[in-house]
Amino acid sequence: MGAVGERGLLARIRARVPGPPAGVTIGIGDDAAVLAPAGRTHAVVTVDSLVERIHFDRRWSSPADVGHKALAVNLSDLAAMGASPEWALLSLAMPGDWPVAEFDGVLDGLLALAAAHGVAVIGGNLARTDGPLVVNVTCGGACRPRRVLLRSGGRPGDDLYVSGTLGAAAAGLEMLQAGHDAAGADEAACVARHRRPDPRVRLGVAIGRARAARAAMDLSDGLADAVRQVAEASGTGASIDAAAVPVAPGARRWFASRGEDAVSRTLAGGEDYELLLAVPPKWRGRLRNARRHAAEPGLTRIGTLTKDRALVVRRADGEGPLPDGFEHFRRDG
Amino acid sequence: MGAVGERGLLARIRARVPGPPAGVTIGIGDDAAVLAPAGRTHAVVTVDSLVERIHFDRRWSSPADVGHKALAVNLSDLAAMGASPEWALLSLAMPGDWPVAEFDGVLDGLLALAAAHGVAVIGGNLARTDGPLVVNVTCGGACRPRRVLLRSGGRPGDDLYVSGTLGAAAAGLEMLQAGHDAAGADEAACVARHRRPDPRVRLGVAIGRARAARAAMDLSDGLADAVRQVAEASGTGASIDAAAVPVAPGARRWFASRGEDAVSRTLAGGEDYELLLAVPPKWRGRLRNARRHAAEPGLTRIGTLTKDRALVVRRADGEGPLPDGFEHFRRDG
User: Nearest residue on chain A to B78, judged by CA atoms?
Assistant: First the structure.
């Protein structure tokens, strides 16, 4: 790495990044990047970082996994706003002895996901660190005015939906940590979800365009956290039907094998990168159309926003409070 | 820090950040921030990071210094594009035992500089690390189409100008490292330039608006590096007049006291955060007006871009090659 130097690494990036697409006036190589926004769109920007040993472990995530995930978590945030992703900036803090092949691997994973979603990598920053690798990605996109999906848009009586299945990433990480041989398809899917989350970009964009939800948030910090945040921001409570929570089959079996309640673990677990949506019952048709248009995983109704500000989980044996969400910072602290 | 948790820190940020200004539809608190661009401007985005022990040392930079500098280096990049800064995203990788008072200090320094330049902090990310503090700032701004200042715009015969005085930051860092008592005003100015660089925001914007330069770059990696980059991007060579390089008085004395050539050290030294400009001789009046309008430090003509692709420094005793620039990554590696 030292032998290659910052300029050598920059040259490696430039050689691999496609030329700037329409709308990007200046890409990599100047003091900053320049974009010509399309008429009458709003710009949506977000930033997220993955820190080695906190958010990923080199023992079971390849450099390409890390590059993929660093972009995916940002795409998930944009999807939760109903925004189409457009560009990304990559900022790395790199250990001095970091092999160039791993640098290339991070780039591979990031660029492959960027290409899949039409995202242009338009710049970034390379810094050295004497600590762990930190991969910081800033992502920008566009949405039409009044089409943005906020956490605060929910109203009492709105149904709550989640996309896909939940709990897989948390279960997959535990399988890796336990050295479990995730040989079956359902278990392998859990491990893959931890390594390479698949952000719901098409679904978020389709829902935003169709105005098919009043509020949205991604499940990066788990379902319980997302329900709490959407309800708080919307000034409502929420009631969740435990039996309806779509726990991924591999996760359900994994948690059961540990003697744990799968729904409780899924509510509290993080890194699902699915979407939580608040949708008035009369918008159900619109939501169905948007989902079909996006050709992404199904949606499951898991509860409602309530006038009563309490946050509750309904089970066969009665109601209980919504558990705390997953907090990277505290859990790992 | 652990006791406060991520949400507690987020609450501290929200309490201190002013409400979003016009143009910012959604600030801190949702999955992403939303901006309504003003009509017919281009968006300019950049990212930079400061890593503890690589870019700053807690022994002589306060948390507020670090917060200031993390934003300043980005504002300098935008200034070098002729862009008005508008918004920033703050992404921190924080050691688990980092005192909350230091977190507040970083925020103080960053928010004070943001307020001085009308920059809205619209979001960010908080992550834990078991390594050094990493302060990553993404900054966005606006410029009018065809008013952006690129590195590549220079032509043979353009005069090269730099703003302000150079070498102070490098000398100031050495004074701190040497435990030198920087008691005099000129020496104190050097130390201040290392700790809290003053980005040439008004100058860059005024020059961009007036089209008073054909190419521009900031001197984050030193004068020699900037001359090389602008000449290479413009397809020219460059000839620098050593006697004209405006070395800061404190730096001149410091380098002399070490038995070093002040101009050579200034060419190679980094972190000046002044601007290098390529200006056709006939645009001199425009440049003077822009400088006066910005009310920022003077400009000094230090050489020209040449048709011959060589990069040379002219001295009383003859010509020599331009030295290599400062490379954070390699020098610290």
Answer: A32
As a whole number of angstroms, the distance between CA A254 and CA A165 comes to 14
Sequence-ordered list of residues with C-beta below 8 angstroms from that of B12, at least 6 positions apart, any chain: B4, B100, B103, B104, B107
The C-alpha atoms of residue A246 and residue A297 are separated, in whole angstroms, by: 12
Angle at B66 between CA B97 and CA B149, to 5 degrees: 140
What ipTM describes this predicted complex? 0.93
Instruction: Locate B211 and state its tokens.
Output: 């089209």
H/E element, B160: strand B159-163
Mean pLDDT of B3-25: 81
Cα–Cα distances in Å, from B183 out to A118, A206, B179, B301, B328? 56, 63, 12, 31, 28
pTM (2 decimals)? Answer: 0.94
Measured between alpha carbons, how far is residue A21 from residues A24, A118, B263, B301 in Å?
A: 6, 9, 42, 37
pLDDT score for B178 = 95
DSSP state of A150: -
Minimal CA separation from B120 to chain A, in Å = 13
Structure tokens, B26: 């959604």
Residue A132: its chain B contacts at CB < 8 A?
A: 129-131
Helix %, strand %, coil % of chain A (to 5):
40, 25, 35
Rounded to whole angstroms, how far apart are CA atoms B214 and B154? Answer: 5
For residue B153, what is the nearest residue in chain A, using CA coordinates?
A30
State the DSSP H helix or E strand holding residue A26, giving kind and residue range, or none if neither: strand A24-26
Locate the chain B residue with the closest alpha carbon to A131: B131
pLDDT in tens, A149-206: 999 999 999 999 999 999 999 999 999 999 998 889 999 999 999 999 999 999 999 9
> Chain B contacts of A125, Cβ < 8 Å?
47-49, 136
Q: Which residues of B touch A80 (CB under 8 A)?
A: 31-32
Closest partner residue to B129 (CB to CB) among A37, A51, A143 is A51
Q: Quick one: which of B191, B318, B148 has its CA closest to B242?
A: B318
pLDDT bucket at B270, cuts 50 / 70 / 90: confident
Probe site for chain B from A121, A232, A329 (most B CB atoms < 10 A): A329
Going from the N-terminus, what domains does chain A have, and what CATH number goes with each?
Answer: 5-143 (3.30.1330.10), 151-331 (3.90.650.10)
